[in-house]
Design brief:
This protein is α+β, with helices and mostly antiparallel strands. Helices cover 39% and strands 13% of the residues. Belongs to the nitroreductase family.
């Protein structure tokens, strides 16, 4: 088993950050480490314990380049539509996001989390469907952090979901929910991020 960082549960939960610029693009990521982290992640809950998720780990340079190009197209459109960052914090995130766009193909592993819909109608509230995939994706991010790796939650490639599915041979009934670019991190000293005051978002016994 891979050595784990000496983190308490609360430290793990509060220091698993969105990692972009601190992804180590030069250090290989063994597939056994990915498998080990995913084994942990698959203990996450899913609706009816059906576990209809699928995980596509993309490591082939040519395939990564094709997925990264679709991500790049979508990201450029997203940035153009968003205009200039509103403040310094938003500017830092934008710069970090721009960096990831340009190096996505160099990230050692691109992991796509997907789920078999069984051809279900995806109109209306889809919380039940995605609630059977996204907890495991977040658990994967936590398991990776515990092993000295990092990632960031991305969905912009979904603008080209069908094209990416064609590149990777993903069946039509299997819908993608998240893309996690995975690498070892440059250092492991991550800290909790700024968040809204608890009392501004907590509602007890009603709004």
């Amino acid at each position: 088993m891979t050595d784990l960082l000496p983190l308490t549960p609360d430290e793990l939960l509060t220091t698993t950050r969105a990692v972009r610029r601190r992804l180590d693009l030069t250090r290989p990521v063994p597939m056994e480490v990915i498998r080990e982290a995913l084994e942990v992640a698959l203990q996450a809950p899913s609706g009816g314990n059906r576990q209809k998720w699928h995980w596509i780990a993309v490591t082939d340079p040519a395939l990564k380049a094709r997925v990264a190009e679709y991500y790049r197209r979508s990201h450029l459109a997203y940035r153009e539509a968003g205009g200039e960052p509103a403040d310094a914090a938003a500017a830092r995130i934008a710069t970090s996001s721009d960096y990831l766009r340009e190096v996505m193909a160099e990230v050692p592993v691109l992991m796509i989390g997907a789920i078999d819909t069984g051809g279900a109608d995806l109109s209306g509230n889809q919380a039940g469907l995605w609630g059977s995939l996204l907890p495991a994706a977040w658990s994967l991010a936590l398991a990776l952090r515990a092993r000295g790796l990092g990632t960031t939650w991305t969905t912009l490639h979904l603008e080209y979901e069908r094209e990416v599915a064609e590149v990777l041979g993903i069946p039509a009934d299997v819908r993608q929910g998240v893309l996690l670019p995975i690498a070892y991190t440059k250092g492991t000293d991550f800290r909790p991020g700024p968040r809204a005051d608890l009392d501004s978002v907590l509602h007890v016994d009603g709004w």
